[in-house]
Amino acid sequence: MDCDIECQKEKKLKTLQDAYMDASTKAGSDPKAYERAKIAYFTLRDGPSWLHDYKQQKAEQAAEQQRRKQEVVDSHTPQDYGPITEDSYEFNKYLQNKKDKSDVQWRLFELSSSFSWYYIELGLTIFLSLYCIYQLYTKFSKYFNGNS
Protein backbone atom coordinates (compact mmCIF):
# COMPACT_ATOMS: atom_id res chain seq x y z
CA MET A 1 0.00 0.00 0.00
CA ASP A 2 2.83 2.37 0.73
CA CYS A 3 4.23 4.22 -2.23
CA ASP A 4 7.93 4.20 -2.80
CA ILE A 5 9.85 7.33 -3.79
CA GLU A 6 9.19 6.80 -7.50
CA CYS A 7 5.43 6.37 -6.90
CA GLN A 8 5.32 9.51 -4.75
CA LYS A 9 7.20 11.40 -7.48
CA GLU A 10 4.64 10.23 -10.06
CA LYS A 11 1.74 11.34 -7.84
CA LYS A 12 3.39 14.71 -7.26
CA LEU A 13 4.13 14.99 -10.99
CA LYS A 14 0.48 14.23 -11.79
CA THR A 15 -0.69 16.90 -9.32
CA LEU A 16 1.75 19.45 -10.74
CA GLN A 17 0.73 18.55 -14.29
CA ASP A 18 -2.94 19.11 -13.43
CA ALA A 19 -2.06 22.45 -11.82
CA TYR A 20 0.04 23.38 -14.89
CA MET A 21 -2.78 22.47 -17.31
CA ASP A 22 -5.27 24.44 -15.21
CA ALA A 23 -2.93 27.46 -15.04
CA SER A 24 -2.28 27.30 -18.79
CA THR A 25 -5.98 27.88 -19.47
CA LYS A 26 -5.77 31.04 -17.32
CA ALA A 27 -2.32 32.16 -18.51
CA GLY A 28 -3.68 35.38 -20.00
CA SER A 29 -5.40 36.50 -16.82
CA ASP A 30 -2.79 35.26 -14.31
CA PRO A 31 0.62 34.90 -16.02
CA LYS A 32 2.55 34.68 -12.72
CA ALA A 33 0.57 31.64 -11.53
CA TYR A 34 1.08 30.04 -14.94
CA GLU A 35 4.83 30.68 -14.76
CA ARG A 36 5.07 29.19 -11.25
CA ALA A 37 3.08 26.08 -12.26
CA LYS A 38 5.17 25.62 -15.41
CA ILE A 39 8.47 25.88 -13.53
CA ALA A 40 7.30 23.52 -10.77
CA TYR A 41 6.06 20.87 -13.23
CA PHE A 42 8.96 20.89 -15.68
CA THR A 43 11.62 21.15 -12.95
CA LEU A 44 10.27 18.01 -11.26
CA ARG A 45 9.79 16.20 -14.58
CA ASP A 46 13.08 17.16 -16.31
CA GLY A 47 15.32 18.04 -13.39
CA PRO A 48 17.31 21.09 -12.36
CA SER A 49 19.08 21.33 -15.73
CA TRP A 50 15.73 22.27 -17.33
CA LEU A 51 15.32 25.15 -14.84
CA HIS A 52 18.85 26.40 -15.61
CA ASP A 53 18.21 26.25 -19.37
CA TYR A 54 14.81 27.93 -18.95
CA LYS A 55 16.24 30.83 -16.94
CA GLN A 56 19.01 31.25 -19.51
CA GLN A 57 16.44 31.28 -22.33
CA LYS A 58 14.37 33.91 -20.48
CA ALA A 59 17.47 36.08 -19.98
CA GLU A 60 18.30 35.83 -23.70
CA GLN A 61 14.75 36.78 -24.63
CA ALA A 62 14.86 39.79 -22.31
CA ALA A 63 18.19 40.89 -23.78
CA GLU A 64 16.83 40.51 -27.33
CA GLN A 65 13.73 42.49 -26.43
CA GLN A 66 15.88 45.24 -24.90
CA ARG A 67 18.08 45.27 -28.02
CA ARG A 68 14.99 45.68 -30.24
CA LYS A 69 13.68 48.51 -28.07
CA GLN A 70 17.03 50.28 -28.28
CA GLU A 71 17.04 49.77 -32.05
CA VAL A 72 13.64 51.44 -32.31
CA VAL A 73 14.81 54.36 -30.16
CA ASP A 74 17.99 54.75 -32.21
CA SER A 75 16.13 54.61 -35.52
CA HIS A 76 13.74 57.39 -34.47
CA THR A 77 16.29 60.11 -33.90
CA PRO A 78 15.27 63.46 -35.38
CA GLN A 79 16.52 64.08 -38.89
CA ASP A 80 17.15 67.30 -40.75
CA TYR A 81 14.79 67.45 -43.71
CA GLY A 82 16.20 70.69 -45.06
CA PRO A 83 14.54 74.08 -45.26
CA ILE A 84 10.79 74.46 -44.85
CA THR A 85 8.98 74.56 -48.19
CA GLU A 86 5.40 75.38 -49.11
CA ASP A 87 4.59 71.67 -49.34
CA SER A 88 6.06 70.75 -45.96
CA TYR A 89 3.99 69.80 -42.97
CA GLU A 90 5.62 72.48 -40.79
CA PHE A 91 4.72 75.23 -43.26
CA ASN A 92 1.11 74.08 -43.51
CA LYS A 93 0.92 73.86 -39.72
CA TYR A 94 2.33 77.41 -39.44
CA LEU A 95 -0.27 78.71 -41.90
CA GLN A 96 -3.08 76.93 -40.06
CA ASN A 97 -1.97 78.49 -36.75
CA LYS A 98 -1.90 81.96 -38.34
CA LYS A 99 -5.37 81.40 -39.82
CA ASP A 100 -6.72 80.17 -36.48
CA LYS A 101 -5.37 83.22 -34.66
CA SER A 102 -6.81 85.52 -37.32
CA ASP A 103 -10.19 83.78 -37.09
CA VAL A 104 -10.20 84.19 -33.31
CA GLN A 105 -9.35 87.89 -33.59
CA TRP A 106 -12.06 88.43 -36.21
CA ARG A 107 -14.65 86.62 -34.09
CA LEU A 108 -13.73 88.72 -31.06
CA PHE A 109 -14.09 91.86 -33.19
CA GLU A 110 -17.51 90.68 -34.41
CA LEU A 111 -18.65 89.96 -30.88
CA SER A 112 -17.43 93.25 -29.50
CA SER A 113 -18.94 95.28 -32.35
CA SER A 114 -22.29 93.48 -32.16
CA PHE A 115 -22.29 94.30 -28.44
CA SER A 116 -21.97 98.04 -29.17
CA TRP A 117 -24.64 97.90 -31.91
CA TYR A 118 -27.04 96.55 -29.31
CA TYR A 119 -26.69 99.71 -27.25
CA ILE A 120 -27.02 101.94 -30.33
CA GLU A 121 -30.22 100.15 -31.33
CA LEU A 122 -31.58 100.42 -27.79
CA GLY A 123 -30.79 104.15 -27.65
CA LEU A 124 -32.48 104.79 -31.01
CA THR A 125 -35.55 102.83 -29.95
CA ILE A 126 -35.89 104.82 -26.72
CA PHE A 127 -35.33 108.13 -28.53
CA LEU A 128 -37.92 107.36 -31.24
CA SER A 129 -40.41 106.19 -28.62
CA LEU A 130 -40.03 109.43 -26.67
CA TYR A 131 -40.31 111.45 -29.89
CA CYS A 132 -43.55 109.67 -30.82
CA ILE A 133 -44.97 110.27 -27.35
CA TYR A 134 -44.01 113.97 -27.59
CA GLN A 135 -45.68 114.31 -31.00
CA LEU A 136 -48.83 112.64 -29.72
CA TYR A 137 -48.87 114.90 -26.68
CA THR A 138 -48.44 118.08 -28.74
CA LYS A 139 -51.15 117.11 -31.22
CA PHE A 140 -53.62 115.95 -28.64
CA SER A 141 -52.65 118.19 -25.70
CA LYS A 142 -55.90 120.10 -25.92
CA TYR A 143 -57.76 116.92 -25.08
CA PHE A 144 -55.57 116.31 -22.06
CA ASN A 145 -55.88 119.89 -20.67
CA GLY A 146 -59.62 119.88 -20.79
CA ASN A 147 -59.76 122.70 -23.39
CA SER A 148 -62.37 121.74 -25.92
For the structure shown, list the relevant keywords.
148 residues, mainly alpha, 2 domains, 5 helices, elongated
In words, what does this structure look like?
This protein is mainly alpha-helical. The chain has 2 domains: 68 residues, no CATH class; 57 residues. Helix content is 82%, strand content 0%. The chain contains 5 helices and no strands. The radius of gyration is 44 Å and the shape is elongated. The termini are far apart. The model has no long low-confidence stretch (mean pLDDT 83).
Question: Which bin fits the share of residues in helices?
Answer: over 70%
Count of discrete domains? 2
Largest β-sheet summary: none
How far apart are the termini? 139 Å
> Given the helix and strand composition, which structural class is it?
mainly alpha
Gross morphology is elongated
- The unreliable regions are none
Pattern of helices and strands: HHHHH
Average residue-wise pLDDT: 83
